[in-house]
Inverse folding.
């Protein structure tokens, strides 16, 4: 699989470099008054196109000939998967270029791609680890398909929400993919391991230009690639291998998922539409109230330095869920307990930061 990582990395890195050099004029369309904007200058948002190209190239190579990489992934299957996620990713890329695709249309595209994937690949979520829910899902097969489509179509938007600072969402995606590949290899599923390993290589090719220099952003397109591929992988992993707890992907992805759920609740409680952008996400509070102001020659460098210092806080926060997920991937009660612990910790930390009660040891 090392060859697949190299292929995806090189294709992604070269593609991102091309977009970084050629797409600067499109970056001027991104409004300077956007609440989620924490950088100076006009930075292209087409990193997701490079990630998609790198991942897709490696997927297609993995399926050629007589299985040279021993991943048992026919070219037809990898090409179908790539074509199914393309509408959602292209919708995100168009939004990155034009800033004119509404949240409703983008959600429709991701759900549409998810339904297509569930139909062609036979995906469904029939196990949740909760008895009465599992009985209902098994009694109504279409409900299992809709559940899977909701998960696959929703995760891209969760990654889009946490994609706020250089290297943040990309590194979280790498950590998650490495965890999924580890468990997939534990159960002997080299196909799923190859699927996410290709995404790791492509994401690394993007991060070369994104962190710490911030020369290009992943944009909606990148978040949609991460979300769609990871969601497909974990739904398939749980469906194929009953030994894998359905709460393994839940704990693994609890950070972006809970950030999304909490954001929806927070906006509804304030009378806002969940689709409206704001600057009150957890990572944005970390940036404003924990990360110290950096001393630099100009405002742009100062902002870039603070931007780069924010991401490691969230990497550690995400790793605190990835590690137990990998250690207890087949133990549902323990995984559920860790999910509850994360939610309690997140809410407590959020309220503490909002109320300016940050402990001294968290302040660098």
């Amino acid at each position: 699989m090392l060859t697949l990582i190299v292929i995806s990395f090189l294709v992604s890195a070269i593609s991102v470099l091309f977009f970084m050099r050629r797409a600067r004029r499109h970056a001027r369309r991104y409004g300077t008054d956007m609440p989620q904007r924490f950088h100076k200058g006009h930075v292209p948002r087409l990193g997701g196109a490079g990630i998609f190209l790198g991942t897709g190239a490696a997927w297609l190579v993995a399926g050629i000939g007589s299985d040279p990489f021993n991943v048992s992934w026919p070219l037809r299957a990898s090409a179908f998967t790539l074509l199914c996620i393309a509408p959602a990713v292209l919708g995100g890329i168009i939004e990155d270029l034009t800033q004119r695709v509404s949240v409703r249309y983008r959600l429709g595209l991701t759900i549409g791609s998810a339904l297509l994937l569930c139909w062609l690949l036979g995906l469904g979520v029939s196990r949740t680890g909760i008895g009465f829910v599992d009985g209902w899902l098994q009694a109504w097969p279409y409900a299992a398909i809709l559940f899977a489509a909701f998960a696959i179509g929703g995760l891209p938007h969760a990654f889009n929400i946490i994609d706020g600072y250089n290297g943040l969402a990309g590194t979280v995606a790498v950590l998650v993919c490495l965890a999924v590949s580890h468990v997939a290899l534990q159960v002997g599923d080299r196909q799923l391991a190859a699927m996410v390993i290709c995404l790791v290589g492509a994401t690394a090719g993007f991060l070369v230009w994104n962190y710490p220099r911030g020369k290009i952003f992943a944009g909606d397109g990148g978040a949609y690639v991460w979300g769609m591929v990871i969601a497909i992988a974990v739904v398939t992993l749980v469906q194929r291998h009953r030994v894998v707890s359905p709460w393994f992907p839940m704990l693994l992805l609890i950070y972006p998922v809970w950030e999304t759920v909490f954001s929806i609740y927070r906006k509804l409680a304030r009378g806002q539409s969940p689709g409206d952008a704001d600057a009150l996400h957890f990572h944005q509070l970390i940036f404003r109230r924990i990360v110290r102001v950096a001393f630099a020659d100009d405002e742009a460098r100062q902002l870039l330095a603070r931007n780069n210092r924010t991401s490691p806080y969230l990497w550690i926060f995400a790793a605190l869920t990835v590690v137990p997920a990998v250690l207890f991937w087949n133990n549902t009660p323990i995984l559920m307990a860790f999910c509850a612990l994360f939610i309690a910790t997140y809410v407590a930390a959020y309220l503490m930061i909002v109320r300016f009660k940050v402990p001294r040891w968290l302040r660098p």
Observations:
- The two ends are 40 Å apart (CA to CA).
- The chain has a mean pLDDT of 89.
